[in-house]
Amino acid sequence: MSIEASGKPARRWRLDIAYDGSGFHGWASQEGLRTVQGTLEEWISTVLRTTDPVQLTVAGRTDAGVHARGQVAHMDLAREYDATHLASRLLKVIPNDVVVHQVQRAPEGFDARFAAIWRHYVYRLWDADSQPDPLLRGHVARVRERLDLDALNQAATLLIGLHDFAPFCRRNDFGTSIRHLTDLHAVRRDDETGMIECHVTADAFCHSMVRSLVGALWAVGAGRRDEAWLGKVAAHPVRHNDVYVMPAHGLCLEEVGYPPDDQLAARAAQARSFRKPQEIDQ
């Protein structure tokens, strides 16, 4: 168990968080910039009146403009708090583009980042067959072409599995880009908008990976590229310049999955031995 600056054994708390990323420069704290982490840590410290700064560890450090419905974080505090009261207080004071849905004592071995076994993102877009809703424009990207979802989904099967996703990731000279992608598919919603939702699930993601995967599939679905091109891109040893990175505002972290409580510590230890902290991102 970690120790706070006070020397007292820390108690770990899990926070379930949602936010509209439009007004934030991403999750991670940056001096002089408004971020989700910075905003939450400031308000939590204020509400708890702590002498030591509160530090949050998050499941996925989303980029500037990316949204979240199911973000998970943890914090270590030196004493007990009424979790329900804390969540209620935060709801009243935190700016309304971020919400802490729940605060609860974390089970033994829980680590929001390293204990996670999968992260599920959805990228939303409108194509030529959609009827865009202007009220959703900050959360859905637009493309001019009509997308062939059959071709897109067929091409997506090439990418599912355990692969080196370096062609789709921002270069990182200090870590691995090997990821286990378990789901990648797109569906058109049966409603008045005809919105397309691209579902992407993996054990972890490197920088810009989801938006790059969707960008590559958009090229195939729009008829600009074919499946053979995607296969060549996927085999490239480093970031591929032909892959378009989709705009951030269409992306949302929907959910993070964890193993049963008795497997949390083992999962966290396994992840730490395989990846550095900066490698689990989006």
Quick gist of this model?
This protein has six helices and ten strands. It is an alpha+beta fold and 282 residues long.
Describe this structure in words.
With 282 residues, this protein is an alpha+beta fold. It has two domains: 11-115, Alpha-Beta Plaits (2-Layer Sandwich); 118-255, Pseudouridine synthase I, catalytic domain, C-terminal subdomain (Alpha-Beta Plaits), CATH 3.30.70.660. The protein has six helices and ten strands, in the order E-H-E-E-H-E-E-E-H-E-E-E-H-H-E-H. The chain has helices at residues 36-48, 83-93, 149-156, 209-221, 227-234, 264-274; strands at 11-19, 56-58, 67-77, 98-105, 118-126, 141-142, 161-164, 178-188, 196-202, 251-257. Strands 1, 2, 3, 4, 5, 6, 7, 8, 9 and 10 form a ten-stranded mixed sheet that branches. Strand 8 (178-188) and strand 9 form a beta hairpin. It starts with 10 loop residues before the first strand and ends in an 8-residue tail after the last helix. Residues 1-6 have low confidence and may be disordered.
Q: How are the SSEs placed, and which strands pair?
A:
Blueprint: E1 11-19, H1 36-48, E2 56-58, E3 67-77, H2 83-93, E4 98-105, E5 118-126, E6 141-142, H3 149-156, E7 161-164, E8 178-188, E9 196-202, H4 209-221, H5 227-234, E10 251-257, H6 264-274
Parallel strand pairs: 3-10, 5-6
Antiparallel strand pairs: 1-3, 1-4, 2-3, 5-9, 5-10, 7-8, 8-9
Helix pairs in contact: 1-2, 3-4
